[in-house]
Structure formats: C-alpha cells, structure tokens
Amino acid sequence: MRIPKAHIVLVLGINHSIPIHKTKQSQAMEKGNLTIMISRTCHDHHFCIAILLSILLFSSLLCFDYFAIFHSPNHTVTFLATNTDSCTGRYIYIHHLPPRFNSHLLHNCHSLTRGTDKPNMCPYMQNLGLGPQILNSQSQHVFTNQSWYATNQFLLEVIFHNRMKKYECLTNDSSLASAVFVPFYAGLDISRFLWLSNLTIRDSSGQDLLQWLEKKPEWKTFWGRDHFLVSGRIAWDFRRQSDNESYWGSKFRFLPQSMNMSMLAVEASSWKNDYALPYPTSFHPSEDIEILEWQRKIRYRKRPYLFTFTGASRPEVEDSIRGKIIDQCRNSTACKFFDCGVEKCDDPVNVMKVFESSVFCLQPPGDSYTRRSIFDSMLAGCVPVFFHPGTAYSQYKWHLPKKRTKYSVYIPVKDVNKWSVDVEKVLLGIPEGDVLAMREEVIKLIPNIIYANPKSKLDKFQDAFDLAVKGMLERIEEVREDMRNGRDPSIGFADEDHYKYTFSDNYS
C-alpha cells in the first residue's frame, strides 16, 4: 500500500511597511554590542564561537537588501518541493464486498459448471485463478519454462482481482483514489443462472450489489462514474434488452446505477461504457526473461503450414462463415484444420503446437464476435486473419495497434451467402517482407496480451492488466475533466454506439 508524499511549500512573507534598512554604523554597533555581551557571559570557547557565528549569520540576513530584489510591496516568495509521488493520478481503492459476491463463488466452485464443457471448475481455481500448472514433462518441449497453466477463459475476473491486490498504487483512503475497483465476480455469478427461465433469479445478484454500492460514501463522490468491474464473460451476457424469458442474460448493465459504471470484459458490447480485455492465455510469466525466451523461440520457429483453423463448425449460428472456411481449409494442402469437435482444443500443448506451425491463423467469429483463439494464436507468433471488425479491431483498443495492417490480415465477410473469396490465394499474394514484418509485430505484442503471474511483477514489460488499468484511469480522468468544465458527465457516457460493429472504411 503506497502512502502519498505530501507537497511541501515554504512561504517567506516580507512586509516592507517595516523599515529594514540600517546605516553601516548602526549595524556595526549592534554587532559589537552582541559580541561584548557574549564575551562577558560565555566561558566555553567552542560554544561561544558557535553562538557568535549563528548570530552573525542571522544579523546578515536582517541586513540583506530584500527590496533590491523584490520590487513590489508585500511580495511572497514560494519554494515548491518536487513532487516525487509516482502514484499521483493512479491511486485505486478496492471495495471490500460481502463474500457472496466473490470469495463464496470460489468456495462453491462445483456450482459453476453449467455453461462450460468442464464437469468440474474447481481445479481451475488453483494458483490464484491461473489453473493447474503445466510441467515440463507434460509440455512435449513446446513450452520454454514453468510459467504455463491450464487456464480457463472464464476466470479473468479472478486473475484480474488477484493482480489488483498487488497493484503498486492501492490506497485505503478513497478520497485519494482516481478510480474505485469493484471485485464482483459477475461472470462466475451469472453462469449459474443463464439457463434459468426465472428472470428474478437471473437479475438478483446484480441488483443486490448495486444496492450495496450506492449506500457507500465512495459512490456519492461521482455517483459511480469512477467505479469499474471486470467480467470473464462477454458483456452481452449482462445486457438483456427485454424481460421476455426467451431473451439471453441478465439486465445488470441496464440498471441505472450500473449504467454509471464501466465494465471490462473479454468482449465489449456496443455500449460506450463497456471495454474489452484480452482473453487469458495459458502463459503467465513471473519475470521479463521468460517473455524474452518465448519470443526468441517462436521468432525462429519453422512453420510448414501457410494457414490453420482451430475450431468447430457452427451450423446453428445464422450467417456463420465457419462452414466455408473449414471447407477451404480441408481442400488445401497448405492449411491445417484442427477440429475441436474431435481433438482436445482445451489442451494448451495441442493448441500451441498447431499455432506454432502456421504462418497465418484464421479467426472467424464463433458463438460471439470474439474468441480466445485470437490470443492463443498470437502468443504462438501466428498472424491472425479476421473476417469481421467486431472480432478485434473495434474491441481491444488498449492492447492492439490502431493500424490493423501492422499485425493482421482482414478479409471482410459482409454477406456469407455471396462470399466467395479464396483465402489461400489472398494469403499467398502477400509479399514475404510484409509477412515477416507482421509476424515480428505480433511477437512484440505478446506482453500486451498476457497476464503475468499475480505472485510477481514484470519490470520492463507492461502486460494486459497494466494496460487495462492505464486505459481505465485515463477514461475516468476524461469524465472528471468534463465535470471540471461544467459539462454533464452522463451525456454520452453510457450511450450505444450503433456503428461499432459495422463494416466501415476504416476496416475494409
């Protein structure tokens, strides 16, 4: 916990209504009288000299002609000490929520299995949410160190919370805080109720949390606009737009208090107070050297396949491009299709072996716009190929470059039924120099898209957590600036961006 250093201000007030000029004769007489007085009363030689020097210095200050320097009457001289507090503008206060909103969910992890392909989520709670560690003996020489874990993608909120507990600029004084973190495990909580038809149960936890928050003094400072929370599920799971039982999710993000807050999720919705964070991968380094070793390994990796697709078809999803992509991949000797309907796609070793062997990795939308595979493939140095702007470009603005051509290939699919692009032909047409440049950019981006081990801290690199905190602090400061300038901070804060996921000229 950082203790803020105070600003030190020394003010010297000079009142020239009191005459301070003296003649040389009067100054000499005063010095002489002081010397005589000391010599009569002082018996310790060294002590007397010290007193004499002090008095002479003091009298010199009195005789100094301040008026020659400070021409205006009642002039004030201010000396400001340099502010060395590196946490200024970065302090974060963490709400201490009732256990039912976070820790109790972990203790009852057996109830979190619904909606995942895991019969038991409890093993994934190990190592502060990173999951079971993958030993070198299990990695088949794919990994370079002991910083790899079988991480479940839904546990981002747990990983983020544990990282936040070690954040260097935490404060117990909420008046100093630039932001307030709400460690509500929203994704884990809603996972228990998403398939229930009872809307009251689906919405209950979110409503109870907001009622708890609005009673706190921290809420009343900005009415929640400096509050943020994190979800390991997509933001759409909290944006049910009707109270019809057939509609998906809860309405947590449409409740008035929640609309004043910001949510960071693995996929943002089209509302402006939702922000996207990278899905957690299996790599959680403890030191910078582990990142450098991994980057060095994949930089010189031989890649026998031009492109790969790891996933399964989505026949139940309307307008899914996956079927056509799978057909093209199967019909090409330059493509590796890793069928998640048959293979173990939840095994990090299997997945990374495929991605490491490919130059390009196809990333079509799945059940939603985004997928964890984006970040697993980039971690392997594989250049992502996107087919929709909502898969990455309009999502991870704090973590990926604005210029998409630096690190990815874009093949827009505006109409699946009319789409007839030959993916292999497009990829073969990219100059080799451009391919190498994109791969190098992807490798450089690796620190941006991983979450370091919560037990340690990287020195040189900023990881996905660091960039998320930085982005959130900057966004909250923009709100404060609006308020300082007399603008209503609610205007535009939680509005829907109807063009966020459209095919604009910026992406095509």
UniProtKB/TrEMBL annotation:
Protein name in UniProt: Exostosin GT47 domain-containing protein
Keyword Isomerase: no
Gene Ontology molecular function: any one: glycosyltransferase activity
Pfam families: Exostosin_GT47
Cellular component aspect of the GO annotation: Golgi membrane
Signal peptide location: none
Predominant localisation class: Golgi
Compartments it resides in: Golgi apparatus membrane
Statement: the UniProt record of this protein carries the keyword Ion transport: no
Membrane topology (UniProt): Single-pass type II membrane protein
Record-annotated membrane-spanning stretches: 47-69
Keywords: Glycosyltransferase, Golgi apparatus, Membrane, Signal-anchor, Transferase, Transmembrane, Transmembrane helix
InterPro entries according to UniProt: Exostosin, Exostosin_GT47
Organism taxonomic ancestry: Eukaryota, Viridiplantae, Streptophyta, Embryophyta, Tracheophyta
Domain Exostosin GT47: 87-418
Family: Belongs to the glycosyltransferase 47 family.
Domain of life where this protein originates: Eukaryota
Species: Clitoria ternatea
